[in-house]
Amino acid sequence: MMKSNALPRTLLAAVPTFMALATFAQLTWQRTYGGYGSDEGMAVVATADSGYAFLGSTGSFGSGGDAYLVRVDSAGALLWSRSFGGSGVDRGADLVAAADGGFLVVGSTYTDPQTGYDGLLVRTDAQGAPVWEKAMGGTDWDLFHAAAVTADGWFVVGRTYGIGSGAAWVLRLNAQGDTLWTRAYAPGPEAWATAVVATPDGGCVVLANTEQAADRNIVLLRYAADGTVDGVTTWGGTAIDEGRSLSATADGGFVVGGITEGVMPYRTMLLLKFDGGGNALWSEVTYGQGHWEGHGVIELANGELCMAGSTDAFGAGGKDMYMWHTTATGAYLEGPTFGGLEQDEAFDVTATLDGGYVLIGRTTTTGPGPQAMAAVKHFGSPLSGGFTATFDPLPVPEVRPDDSGLHVRPNPARPGEAVVLTMPGAPTRHTTQLLDQQGRTVAHWPAASASEPLPLPPLAPGIYRLCVALADGRRVVAPLCIVP
Question: pLDDT (tens digit, 9 = 90+) per residue, 270-298?
Fold first, then answer.
């Protein structure tokens, strides 16, 4: 049985490493992926052919926003990509490799204005084609955050708002995605699950968090194969302690990655080690004045630990991607940063077959749109140069009018081209503004007749909004996609 056990936390001096660049034989790269909207990467899986699969979200393709699956080779070159979702805003959160070379896409989908979000699962083949797809939830918001594969199915975890302000949600599914059992954990006003690991006895260990009156704690839950709770461990102080990732270790224990605000006067990355019975063995935090975020954590073949995150304590520009590399007992080994002059964040990490690492995240430094999915292949040393932008060849969709009936033609359009706006009844336009994704006005046209063309100024590719004030006092909005 697990029991509550929290050890004193110790500081870890995490400083940037400046080492020689990788040898010629070591393949390193920094790439971005996506289109003219906002794209991000949340999970990475190494594949048997020395390539990688990334999962995140895209605002460049699909309708509203979709889960975004990207497959690349060992050099980071794009092999194929897929987007999944409906007409609302859909997001990808986790990616799990299947034994047949396919994947399980885990995320959330906006299904109905009355019920909000449901958990989203898409089982794909090795080429990303859907085998089955499921939206799961009740009459309130339900979100999936992570999954783990078993010999005959899956464990999936997330958050359901069907209980209070939210409960940790645990599901056991068969290989076809049918529900075998569900459990909810809600010891207080708020709880949610962020990660899960399948155990050899057919059960699982779930990483969850609870919050009450600004006191956030980390919880490990052990479930038997039939869904019986076999143990609960709570760890934390009187401030914010949050677990975001969980990995099994070779000694039968578990390592948790996350953040804490209980040690320093600023947020730091947090590593926690538990034994197989749920007893806390040690904890470590990063040290350096600034803001830190900690996310995915893995154990390497030699027992060392790596954690993906971000920091503005050092590096270039604002936030930078950061990889915290420690010994098996949490002693600092290295901490390289990656990124440019703007915002760069890493959310997951995987070890590579050639002894390196791949980080996945997002960047506003480079890419065809305002934010791109970003990946870095490295060997523990900072890399020279910046990201190489990869424009995804997924087709840019015809942007449809919203419920106001406002049509924009052509759409997509090119800089300098003239667009025509039409609406049922051809009302007179009072003024028209073009806004970028930050809400800034980049073009303005005075009163015009319904059919008068509007010349576009020189614009960077991306998604914009046309905001029209009508003579009768109404305001309507329609998206406009600008392509090169």
Answer: 999 999 999 999 999 998 888 999 999 99
